[in-house]
Design goal:
The complex is a heterodimer of chains A (344) and B (90). Chain A has 344 residues and is mainly alpha-helical. Chain A has 15 helices and no strands. Chain A has one domain. Chain B has three helices and four strands, in the order βαβαββα. Classes of the chains: A mainly alpha (344), B alpha+beta (90).
Chain lengths: 344, 90
């Protein structure tokens, strides 16, 4: 009896997941736009209270597919990824540390619950400060949720560029910091001999239905954390698009100066809540250049809460160095991307 | 062996998922306690040197029973923890 109900539950859960994937594929085949379709001009003449409602209705009438997909994929990957293997290799040599930091950060870091512990784990247990910083920078700027939404709400080329730029900036920052005297000091201070811990981790794996349920619970948790901010961002964007004159955006958010302004403005907004993508979209619609848009997204890939937690471990000097490198990277690549995409 | 020590390893300041894990472990522990099993519970900071030294890099929340990490990166149901604890008794 217990077995049958378990099988039924597993099938139902798999069916739900298949539905989510199917919905996305279907939307692609039919070439729906999953992003808001309203243009700034559409808002003219609407009463104040109606603007955000119209915008939200416009977005959610098709955007729910992308949102649901992004959250479900993030949750599933997080649950099903072989955690033990990752943590074991993460405390290995420097090179594997860097590679893993790049390859895995995008899948794990949807939740700050993982970021700080892994940062500390990588730093303490052998790979050192370089890979730890790489991980920390890579994490928010190109995790799976933000990449999927960048692709859908903005455009896919930007999502790929965002990944590539995060890789370059994250590795550079890790490498530079591991060479600075203060970076080395943090590393020396924190190195512990953790070579004999392997025997003490023996994970137990629950059956599939429980893993799926726990994945979906994680999805719900993520959604609860992120969606309120996301929706607030959409409401803000509705007003921005309705009232911010296009010539202001056209004057200040284009060219080299636009990149600089965008990189600074994007900084404080950067939280792992996807708000920067939504607002970036609004500004882009109003005429922000592509270069400035990249810079806006990459601005300062840290969020204040994590920076606080990290600074307890790694000292402010390291945190500030990493903020400066991240900011410089966003400006340089913003300008380069602007030149290459013909939209500076 | 009639004594178990459980460590719930999480981030500091505590996150919601770590708190949920602690609650579920407590629920399981109280069932076993009522059967006369001695269980000591402790919260550990995942980013402390001591934890990394003993267990290596971990993902939070993690649960260790008698010095072995059994669960990490997810919130276990209290039934699952209860089962783990009963196995540790054997």
């Amino acid at each position: 009896m217990k077995e049958t109900s378990r099988i039924i539950r597993t099938i139902l859960l798999l069916a739900f997941i298949a539905f989510v994937f199917g919905a996305l594929i279907y939307s692609r085949i039919k070439a729906y736009s999953l992003a808001p379709t309203m243009k700034p001009a559409d808002f003219h003449g609407l009463p104040l209270w109606h603007i955000p409602i119209a915008y939200l209705a416009d977005y959610f009438s098709h955007g729910w597919i992308c949102l649901l997909f992004a959250f479900v994929v993030a949750g599933l990957i997080y649950e099903l990824i072989p955690k033990q293997a990752i943590t074991r290799y993460m405390s290995g040599s420097k090179l594997t540390g860097y590679l893993l930091a790049l390859g895995i950060a995008p899948f794990l870091t949807v939740c700050s619950c993982t970021m700080v512990p892994l940062f500390a784990g990588v730093l303490y247990s052998g790979a050192g400060i370089g890979p730890a910083i790489t991980f920390l920078l890579m994490a928010p700027s190109s995790n799976i949720l933000s990449i999927l939404l960048t692709g859908d709400l903005l455009y896919w080329e930007l999502a790929y560029v965002r990944i590539a730029v995060s890789v370059v900036v994250a590795v550079t920052a890790g490498f530079i910091i591991s060479r600075t005297p203060w970076g080395k000091a943090v590393e020396r201070e924190h190195q512990v001999n953790a070579s004999n811990h392997r025997a003490s981790v023996k994970l137990v794996q629950p059956p599939l239905d429980q893993r799926l349920i726990s994945a979906l619970k994680f999805v719900a948790y993520l959604a609860k954390q992120i969606l309120p901010f996301f929706i607030a961002g959409l409401i803000a964007v509705a007003y921005v698009e309705a009232f911010l004159p296009e010539d202001i955006v056209g004057t200040y958010l284009t060219g080299v100066q636009g990149v600089l302004i965008a990189s600074v403005l994007g900084g404080p907004l950067y939280t792992p809540t996807l708000v920067e993508i939504v607002i970036g979209r609004g500004l882009w619609n109003l005429g922000m250049s592509r270069g400035a848009l990249l810079s806006w997204l990459m601005g300062q890939p840290y969020d204040v809460a994590n920076a606080m937690a990290v600074s307890r471990i790694a000292r402010w000097k390291v945190v500030i160095t990493y903020m400066v490198i991240a900011w410089a990277g966003s400006v340089i690549f913003g300008i380069l991307y602007g030149i290459f995409s013909g939209s500076l | 062996m009639n004594e178990i020590y459980v460590e719930v390893i999480g981030v500091n300041p505590p996150c919601k998922r770590c708190d949920a894990t602690w609650k579920n472990v407590e629920k399981a522990a109280s069932i076993l306690r009522s059967e006369g099993v001695e269980i000591s519970m402790k919260k550990l900071d995942i980013a402390s040197k001591d934890v990394v030294k003993r267990y290596g890099a971990l993902m939070s929340p993690a649960v260790a029973v008698n010095g072995t990490v059994k669960i990490m990166g997810r919130v276990p149901e209290s039934e699952e923890v209860e089962k783990l604890l009963r196995e540790a008794l054997k």
